[in-house]
Amino acid sequence: MSWQPTLTWEYAQQRAQVLQQIRQFFNDRNVVEVETPALSQGTVTDLHLEAITCRYNFLSDSSPEQSTTLYLQTSPEFHMKRLLASGYGCIFQIAKAFRHEEAGRYHNPEFTLLEWYRLGFDHFMLMKEVAELLITVLACTEPTQTTYQDLFIEQLGLDPLIATRAQLLTLIKEHDKLSDWLTAEQDNDILLQFIFSEIIEPHIGNESPCFVYNFPRSQASLAKICPADARVAQRFECYFQGVELVNGFNELSADDIQYERFQKDNMQRKIMALQEKPIDENFIAALSHGLPQCSGVALGIDRLIMLALKAEHIEQVVSFPIARC
User: Fold this and answer.
1) What is the pLDDT of residues 200-213, one digit of tens each?
2) Which of 64, 205, 231, 298 could be stapled to 210 by a disulfide with Cβ–Cβ 3.0 to 4.6 Å?
3) How far is residue 262's CA from residue 142's CA, in Å, rounded to a whole number?
């Protein structure tokens, strides 16, 4: 084990310059920087996200002898939407986020996330702004846009919105990627996500950033359903040079629908023998009070800096990765 940082002084200075560029970008657009807590009593219910937990003994409604589980944020989304519901205008945050996942080339369990929300924007307006930021920081060419459905049809000749489990497994087998766990998998979404990440992703966004939008409604998360096609959600992601950079939504504001989605997640967790998660009641209360029309997006700062500095591994752009912290 080494006590020294993996981020060189040269890269540290360049990282600081990128952060200055980002802050100037939002300052020029009158988007205000905010800070929210890293800890919360509630957390995400997403089947594919696991929060890191800690214990706290001094909440006002519990005795010091009884500790409460608190969750390190997987993103500042819930807290930031509570700010918006309380009357804040357009906001951004550069925050630490935490996910209980294996470290790798593009991921450290503790990482830096840029998240921002634009009142009155839909997801197409926000994609345009994300593109402007990427061009500013990376000096890349103009990003492209395509739908999730079109990508599957153009690259694989299969419509993901109507594909059967058998068709998805056949496709995976044709690409010599079938394994026992995939054969046993009953959830089409898992199969679609595997196909997207393993077969489609390597072939998009290589020359310029590629925005993919209109994900299946079953993958809506916190996004609105598209009024023109109820099979898809108003959600987008952006990929560039093999890196997933961005995840954005035209934000769902209906508290009852969001609560139902969280409950459905927990039902799926129970079926899959995963721990059920406490729903963030403060977030639901904020939606009930009223979230204005807005779109929001999360962008991985460390990954962005990797691209800006042409670094090969995330450890090159963070001071102390998990193995050295």
Assistant:
1) 999 999 999 999 99
2) 205
3) 36
Q: Apex CA 222: angle with CA 246 and CA 146, to 5°?
A: 45
Nearest Cα neighbor of 133 from 325, 310, 300 is 300
Q: Is 23 helix (H, G, I), strand (E, B) or coil?
A: helix
Which residues lie across from 93 on neighbouring strands?
Answer: 115
pLDDT of residue 301: 98
What's the pTM value of the predicted model, to 2 decimals? 0.95
In the predicted structure, residue 58 carries a pLDDT above the cut 90: no
Rounded to whole angstroms, the Cα distance separating 167 from 140 reads: 37
Residue written as tokens 């294996």?
A: 102
What residues does each domain of the chain span?
A: 9-143+256-324
Rama region for 205: left / alpha / beta (φ>0; ψ in -120 to 50; rest): left
Asked if residues 92 and 115 have their Cβ atoms less than 8 Å apart, the reply is: yes
Angle between helices 165-174 and 188-195 (to 10 degrees): 30
Strands of 63-209, DSSP E: 68-72, 91-98, 110-119, 144-147
For 253-305, the pLDDT digits (tens) are 999 999 999 999 999 999 889 999 999 999 999 999 999 999 999 999 999 99
